[in-house]
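Re: your question from the hallway

Yes, I did run it. Sequences:
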Amino acid sequence: MSAPITVALLGGGTVGSSVANLLISNGSEFAARIGREVVLTGVAVRDTSKTREGIAESLITSDAQALAASGADIVIELIGGIEPAKSLIETAIANGSSVITANKALIAAHGAHLHALAEAKGVDLYYEAAVAGAIPLLKPLRESLAGDKVRRLLGIVNGTTNFILSKMTDEGADYSEVLAQAQALGYAEADPTADVEGYDAAAKAAILASLAFHTNVTSDDVYREGMSQVTADDVEAAKSLGYVIKLLAIAEITDDETGVIVRVHPAMVPETHPLASVRDAYNAVFVEAKAAGQMMFYGRGAGGDPTASSVLGDVITAARNRVAGNVGPTHSTYANLKIHGIGDAVTSYYLNLRVADESGVLAAISNEFAKHGVSIEAVRQDGEANDARLIIRTHSATDAKLRNTVEALRGMSAVREVLGVMRVEGGAV
Ligand code: NAP
Ligand code: HSE
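Structure:
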């Protein structure tokens, strides 16, 4: 065998420690698969005094900059966040290393810039682990579906929030207690606000949309609502109507194929929909392509070993490319699509209203829907002391029309309180 493939690892936390351990324990198999031995040259961490199980002390360093600049064949970035990760990746590329990262925040914000650097230098840049943990999803979008036209992606891409919502739905568990469990299991980001406020899912949605639609979408282009406002009452109300609440990432190309709408928000999904049974930290993404039809990618979305599996898949790909003396397929952004706002998204709403129980109220309410061009699909009325409770489900309309309708309802004296408003998704799958 010729000279080994050298791998430098930046970050030895939840994912980094799994990557290091699997790289060390599977070394001989990796050598057989690549045709060259793979050698871990160092692991950069913040605190060198912590015990790192399975990793020789001699490999541990606090000098991430020097390791990034060492000219290793492959540099794996598993520190997270924008800086110093971005500068370290720039350094690694400048020194001729191929780069593997799981850092969705960085790729969603600076992916175009890093891709340009990698292309100019003739090195690979891969980030399969950045979206949906263990699930092979970016490679299928970049390569397997390159001959098709993707129309829509609909998925659960954040393990922490899915874990929390599953426990709230199945066990009536308390939000903060479940978040602590997700953190202890290594699912949550360093700042869990990124998970619960939807920033993590928005970054992943941007990456998915970029690859699926051959255009540049950044996290700033994604409409985002987190799940911190979802209450136990909302979960119960959804359940009583035959729905579960999920934090969804949705990316769609417009009918004329000139634009894209990307959004992340909680939504009610029918219990019968396959996404409804995606529980705990599992992720699942539906992909709808013109020729292929519908596909679902499902698996573990977070955690050390599952994420390490994706990182190591990229390592093998980049190592094989090195051995062959070339670079692999990269992203393409030729489509240059217009980014549309949430107002143009077509969806349907569930509304929970407390209204005056008087004659003419129902007619006045349905008149507001009609005035704003929104058609009602179903209404349920229950008596409630002197008032009435109305549960309304609309047909699909643009989000802008639905929002205007809700605003108008809030201004009606007969509407005592708008108790809940949520988008309903998954009807068409
Ligand atoms: P983590 O457990 O917080 O680990 C971060 C590692 O980076 C730690 O080893 C830390 O050192 C090290 N570090 C931080 N700042 C550093 C610096 N300035 N110089 C050198 N080392 C530094 O994070 P993680 O959960 O493994 O996540 C890593 C990346 O993977 C993130 O981009 C995350 O979004 C992504 N990701 C995570 C998961 C998951 O399930 N956890 C799944 C998919 C993707 P110390 O150990 O000394 O603190
Ligand atoms: N915090 C992320 C999640 C890790 O919960 O999905 C995986 O990207």
